[in-house]
Amino acid sequence: MAKIELELVKRILKRAELESDVLSEIMGELQSVVEEETEPTEPKIAPVKKQFVVLVADNDDVLAGHELAGWVLQLPEDEPMQSVEDKVKCAAKAFNLSKKGRRYPVSTVGETCENVPARIFKEQKLWLKTKEPVLLVPVKNQLQLDQVDLKNFNDNYSEEDVF
What we know:
Helix content: 25-40%
């Protein structure tokens, strides 16, 4: 719908040689409609700040040699990270109570992440970023940069370029 300034409408109506009382009535109606549209109906809600939840730092080599998979999720910053498991369980329960969930119920975290719609996660204030599992690579938190061999890294960089 095109937006037209009220002054332009007023000039066009004057050219049509309408009576002044009809012209003022029409302009008053137009002015009230414009004022109604410009008033905000609801105040904007600030977006929720979220934090990601996947981190595997394995300094003691407890996870070394294990193949791990996980899912990346987001939850509000003010929520404790320990609540993620409970929220996923609640989302699975809510899905299983739905019509589709009664037909194809979920029973594992993987099935929940792959099959439950985003709106159900959002009701739990949880945002699923990966429906498919992501492989987790356990790493030590300390970097041993003096042991890095740049010759095997990439032929495009030399030590002078990097340092």
